[in-house]
């Protein structure tokens, strides 16, 4: 019997959480915040999905509210270095970070002696978007469908290579789970971020790219990357012609990732409320929705309480998934 891989509660859970957005805002916004530039740490290199979405938020907050939001890339160790820098910052709301599932709920189970806990040392501020993972290949590749990949991997185990943004990311683990679902062996090539992985996939140095949709969207639209499948339970609204892995014969396969703004634990509630209110206003505008959709992601606002609940639930859930994968990073 084929195993079923349902990794997140995905769209249904997100929708349920979103219903409570307005009800949980119990603290008045901070009238005098911000009075100086806000630093938004991006814990990955420029060009990846986290970077793209973070800069959208920073730019739109600047345009709409006349805030100065400085985007600051601090990559390394699967995003955990940038997160750790904000954990150590003063809890004033002037140092925040665009986190994602990889570094907030998976990284803590992968990295030995990580000096912070996402549920204790950080405050959930605002959920921004979620997206499936995509399996793609160069437009010049011999692989036209996911079935072609599976056939090649079964004929010669380990011969098909795939690049990911790094060891232990949700994207790497999506590739690992696909291998298990299909009963094949691929060769994983980790990179330091999505952009270098994509460059090697375009050059044909790796056979496949496993990536967030926002990271790959521009090259897909340019016709340089051929998307083979998305990992979510439903097709991406941004790529409606691309089948899901479940539709490709692996029933129940569902892996998504998400992005959201976090602040150090102890950040005043009224500052958190101000940030959440202003980011949620942006997510409700047609312009911001269109910009996020153009990157292959789905915008979704949440209250700080609901985003915190999502973080806590998935942090617990992914412990077992990481342990089952056998992936460890020293």
Automatic annotation (TrEMBL):
Residues 1-25 form the signal peptide. CDD domains: PBP2_Bug27 (cd13578). Keywords: Signal. InterPro entries: BUG (IPR005064), Bug_dom1 (IPR042100). Belongs to the UPF0065 (bug) family. This is Tripartite tricarboxylate transporter substrate binding protein. It comes from Diaphorobacter ruginosibacter.
